User: Fold this.
Amino acid sequence: MIRKFILRGILFLAILYCLWLTVGILRYKSPSLKPSARLGKEMRGTYHIHSSLSDGKKSVEEIAAEAQRASLDFIILVDHGSPNRESLDAQGKAGDLLILAGSELSVSRGHLVGLDISDYAGVFPQDAEAAAYAIRAASGFSVIAHPYSRVPWSWGEHVGYSGMEIVSAYSALRKKPARALLFLPAFVFKPHFVLLRLLKRPEANLRKWDSLARNAPIYGYFGVDAHLLYRPLLSFLNLHVLLDQAPGEKFLEARSQIFSSLREGRFYNSVNAAAPAGGFRFHGSRKAGLIRMGEELDWEEGLALQVEAPFDRRFRIELLRNGRTVGETRDRELAHAVRQPGVYRVEVYLEGGTPLPKDVPWIVSNPIFVRK
Assistant:
């Protein structure tokens, strides 16, 4: 009798689980992978990808084919090495796709990504600060990789690191193995649904980023850290790079444009699997003219900031100063008069109709730094 009761209970729970998972899968609509109308000076790509040239499972050619299917404009390989010259040599074009590369260095404080380092002829130092200086001396720039993951970053003095990863897909998956098993059956049908449900608000990353940005310009990156599962990951988290002019036809010219925008913080991040985010804008104005995202300037009277989010869905815009909300709206635009210095950035949250957790931002801009 007791055995029958237990079996019925297990069967009942199994049915409830199947219904719960089925409803979630059916309610989620995967983002379109069809080429959207090009937004001119905006390019969408995926950052932090490992190929078989280090510890990834697919070749550069196979990854490029997946990226083309995801309608990406560019991908950024960061194969391990000091630097990884094979990966740097693999840069080029595959149809309309730009294949860019840097290298993920194992240094004394953790993992550091060096970008725009193709002309570096030596071996990067193992000391983190020395490596950052060497990357800068080679006209490159550096990004702190997954600072709160299995290889945490040991924070020291800021020595000119250009950016830090504020979301890492691989780290998010590793931190929730039990929860991943709960959604495992859904991965076959809707992998993005599972990835979205596994995302957690990167509170420590955001808090540290806001702290660092108060003293020096440092930019935030969404990275996938892909070693496998390339098909869902490439269109999961994206960088949206804003160019001064349409990308050049020649590879080296287009590569220089993208790296210049990344170097100067003229890009924003999106959880693209939750909803397409192309067209978002964050900028400002002053007497001298336009203020671009990523720019550092002195405070003066008459500074104003503008957020534009031309999306046909429910969302909430939050404007933050030094990590605290100073403006909020559910409209498509937000205007803010700057009355005091600070580090201003934007987070956009989806409201309803998405498996993305409510406290995980769909879009994260890079800051505009208003100094004393």
